[in-house]
Amino acid sequence: MAEAISLSSGLVALVAFALKSSSVLYHTVDSYRSHPKNVRDLQEELEALAKVLQALSETVEQSKAIDFTALKLPLFRCGNACKEFDEVIAKCSSRSGGSKTSFRDWAKLKYMGDGIDEFRRMLAGYKSTINIALADANLRQSSVTAERLEAYKVMIKNASADLEDHLKSIDEKLESTFSRAADESDEDAIQMRQMQEERSSTQQGLAICAQLSAHISRIQPLLAADRGQRSADARAMPPAVAERITREGLEECQDTLSNTANRLQKHLNSIMDRLMAKSKTALSSPQDAAELGRLQEEWETARLCLDICSKANENVTKVNINVFENVKGDEEVLQFFASTTGKIVHARDISLGPRGVQFGGQLSDASIQQISRDFSRAEHIALTNTTPEIVTPADQAGISVFRNRYGPGFKLSSQPSQGDALSSPAGQTGHGSESSTPPKL
């Protein structure tokens, strides 16, 4: 790994760096014959990580228009973490004699104060974040099935929960390091403790903003759904003034919360920078200072990964699905399970009679109307068993009046058989003898 890689490197270089570092670490672990369960789990995680990184590399090369710059820090940390853990294994192996057949010191491996399981979970966080970024890009470029969309939601939820746990662990380590640095610094001890209190207060403010924003996001779709239901019942009645005021007020609240969160985040970053600078000066050991630097990078990375998950969750909640389930059609029925607005259509357990016809997928309004007219006309011809007549404009006007009042109807025989309940006088002509019984559709 002689090449110089920094956070300022291009995205392609960072993807390659992370992929190479993870591959080198996998081969290092695989070169030892002694593999406890947690080591085998680490190998599986490294394999999965390599596949996701390879998919990201291909996507970046093929789709130049997609912006993945938010992944630069996670990729940088992922590559560095794999590289540094590989160095930890090499040092531990050299102390135990360097034998790859008898190495038994896996339990002694520590990275950022944690063992193999915690390191594996950290890699899993990088992998999940990259996966979510890839799925989010795909969601914005093409349609997905309802099943994949639901799996995507679950993936975001699980990744967010794991990242929050990881961030909490990093926070606790930082708090411990800052306290130790304050104890070792006589001059800046009071100031460092004040900054620690301000840091905690700022994080609490950010948590409150996030909770309120999430609550408003849950309310807004409910308001829209309620308005849509009442509009349908009232024949598309325009929304009430109170609804508009409520909607605008919620949007203003979201904007205010977003601005407040941005200001708090800048304040938190400033406090963290000052705490880091004073702590590194106060810590006597260069190793402690280097460890603190890694903790800071990981803290920033975890927060960024959570932000990526949050934005992906916002995007996925905007995707609407038309769901049709457990629908049973009659013997002769024309069914449409279609979207005219590009929404996802999910149909399951749909049954039709032997002469039923069904259309599904993405169709335009004009296509649905034309198909309906064509099948209605075909059914009408089949029921009358006659060739359609050419009618005059006057006759057509009479038919239109009849249909508007009674429905399509069908033509009676010109010579009704005996026993017909409805008959016409002999010699009657024209189109006034249509029945009001419509054909089945």
Automatic annotation (TrEMBL):
Residues 412-441 have a biased composition (Polar residues). Residues 410-441 are annotated as: Disordered. Pfam families: PigL_N. It comes from the Eukaryota. Keywords: Signal. This is Azaphilone pigments biosynthesis cluster protein L N-terminal domain-containing protein. InterPro entries: PigL_N (IPR031348). Residues 2-210, 243-309 form the Azaphilone pigments biosynthesis cluster protein L N-terminal domain. The lineage of its organism: Eukaryota, Fungi, Dikarya, Ascomycota, Pezizomycotina. Residues 1-23 form the signal peptide. It comes from Monosporascus ibericus.
